[in-house]
Every structure is written in structure tokens, then in C-alpha cells.
Amino acid sequence: MSQTKVFSFASGDDISRALSEFIAQASGEAIARSGRFTVAFSGGSLPATVCRFLKDNPAVDFAKWHVFWADERCVPLADSESNFGLVESELLGPLARAGRAIPDGQVVRISEALIHNSAAAAADYQARMEQLFGGPLPPAFDCILLGIGPDGHTCSLFPGHPLLEERAAWVAPIDDSPKPPPSRITLTLPVVNRAARIAFVASGAGKRDMVRRIVEARDAALPAAHVAPPSGTVYWFLDSAAAQDLSAATTSRFSL
Ligand SMILES: O=C(O)[C@H](O)[C@@H](O)[C@H](O)[C@H](O)COP(=O)(O)O
Could you tell me the domains of the chain? Predict the structure, then answer.
């Protein structure tokens, strides 16, 4: 059974400070155990929220990080729609300028040569994952950072989409994403549900009903409700507006 911990914070800065501590701890434990920290980022508002203080956290040994994307849009890396681009501007660039760069070979981007063929891009991305993690079991990331959409999607796993049933591929293509752009690659549930830690990050009143339906009602129509790693923990980092519809008993004081 996966464990769930739900934290509510007064401000966006408080969420970002807590995420910086949380990720520093996850990274420190993983590096002490295995010599590396494997992490996957989503796009949307998440990279800015996660990296605001993290990029300056002196406790983090970024040289040991291996960075992946939970989902990526099939666009050039320099495109404003690129999820890589968000993490580049919020974390990778600032770290490099501060002399604390994550070695480039440990930053696993979508292959730009394959963005016009999402199936090939997904297969290539999975092959590069396999080089690091081996097989045949799906990779067990140390930490996956997820957002939720207004329809309850997470990664690029959308309500009612056949990709929710994918059990073989670790990385899958999607060419009919209801959220633009339509062509993307995404981690699948078998990978997401092997992670040691999942952190959902959501803020704003627009997410409050969705958060309640996922966290309390476990509404199976919502992809994010399928995130339940049997040997991992799911953490929710919410602002008070997004947490507003949750019962007081659901949230707990932030502690690591
Ligand atoms: O590529 C993407 O679109 C994202 O990875 C997506 O899954 C995102 O995390 C959610 O849509 C939430 O986005 P917001 O945090 O911006 O609401």
C-alpha cells in the first residue's frame, strides 16, 4: 500500500522552500545509498515552483543527479513549449552559471532529431532510460515530480485515454493530447508507480475540486488517482487555495 502525505502551505514561497528541503533530503538519501539521484520533472508551472530555492540549496550534490522528464512535448528544445526548456531556465542554467552544473550526459532530454516521430522518440527515450536503470523491471526513480491538470491529468496521461492501460512500455508516445501541443512522450503508470517518492505540486483555487477528487474520493476517472506506488510515498505540496476542499484530517504539518 502506498502512503500519502498532504501538506498545505500559506504561500507559493513556502511551498518552494519546503520542496527544496524535501528534494535535498531525497537526494541526500539516494546518493548515500546508491551514489546517484534519479529524478523526473513535469512541465507547466512545476519547474518554477520546485526550483525557486532548490537551485541555491548548498546541501544538494547536483553532480550526482540524473535528470529525466515525466513528460515532454515533441517540440525543439529551444521552443517555448519545451518542458526541457523550463527546467533548463529554472535549474540547469542557474546551476551551470554557479559552477554547480549537472553533467550534461546525466540530463536525458528528448532526442531533437526524433520530434517528428513520437513513437521513435518514446522508444529512444526508453532505451536511454534502460542504459542507466537496466531491466527488465521498469525503472524505480528516486523521485518523480508531478503536476495535475484541470481535468485530473498527470504526466501526459489524460482521462479516458488508452495510455492509462499501458502496461508494457516505460515511455509512450501520444499524438492526440487534449492539452496542446498534441504530440508528446510520457512516462507510463508502471514507471510512475515504481518510484520511491512522488511529489504532486498544485496551487490555486482552480485545482481545489480536482485535488479533493483525487486525494479524498480517489476518483478512478482521474489519471492522477492512479498514482499509488506500492512501495513508495505520494506527497502533496499544496497552497491553501488548492487544499481548501480537503478535510482538516487529510492535511498534516510539513515534516520530513
Ligand atoms: O507538459 C505538460 O503539460 C505537463 O507536464 C503537465 O502534465 C502539467 O504538469 C499539468 O498540466 C499541470 O500544469 P500546471 O502546473 O501548469 O497547471
Answer: 3-200+223-244 (3.40.50.1360)
